[in-house]
Design goal:
The protein contains five helices and eight strands, in the order E-H-E-E-E-H-E-H-E-E-H-E-H. The chain is α/β, with parallel strands linked by helices. The chain has one domain: Rossmann fold, CATH 3.40.50.360. Strand 1, helix 1 and strand 2 form a beta-alpha-beta unit.
Length: 170
């Protein structure tokens, strides 16, 4: 159990990019890391710690990330960090109502796991990848297009995870 799992659930690839960046930072710190789609994770036994992230749509995580979080909650004891990818502009700072860092329905699972930290990172709004309904919704919300990921914040968060794992051996 010396590997770290960085798992993600994405629709168009933005969250995958964030997970890969987190995994890269952990590897640079000397940790062994597997980066995998959440839906592909079948066995958590090989992993000493888990970083799990999901894209956010209509204040919800993707189904495969929720399933993996529930599986983790059934096997507490390993360090877990969670991240959400969703807001897509500087004025859109909350992925969830009330400034929460997770969907409210998932908080009991996070509490059971004693999640070390949860972060919300901005994502990407690319109308060319969206279906007609999604483009219409974004247009009505006057959502700006672009890549709003803040790589410095993502890198700093990942370095904090690496430091915590290296310092505590957890």
């Amino acid at each position: 159990m010396d590997k770290i799992l960085v798992a993600y659930a994405t629709k168009y690839g933005s969250t995958k990019g964030i997970a890969e960046r987190i995994g890269q930072a952990l590897r640079e710190a000397g940790l062994q890391v597997d980066i995998r789609p959440a839906g592909d994770v079948r066995d958590l036994a090989p992993y000493h710690a888990v970083v799990l992230g999901s894209a956010v749509y209509i204040f919800r995580w993707r189904r495969e990330a929720v399933r993996l979080l529930r599986a983790l909650a059934a096997l507490p004891g390993r360090p877990v960090w969670l991240f959400s990818s969703g807001p897509t502009s500087e004025t859109d700072t909350d992925a969830f109502p009330g400034g929460l860092k997770l969907p409210k329905a998932m908080q009991p699972f996070a509490d059971r796991l004693r999640v070390r930290d949860a972060a919300v990172f901005r994502g990407v709004n690319d109308p060319q990848k969206m279906n007609a309904l999604e483009r219409w919704m974004m247009s009505n919300m006057k959502a700006p297009s672009g890549d709003f990921r803040e790589w410095d914040a993502i890198d700093a968060w990942a370095r904090g995870i690496a430091q915590a794992l290296l310092e505590t051996g957890a």
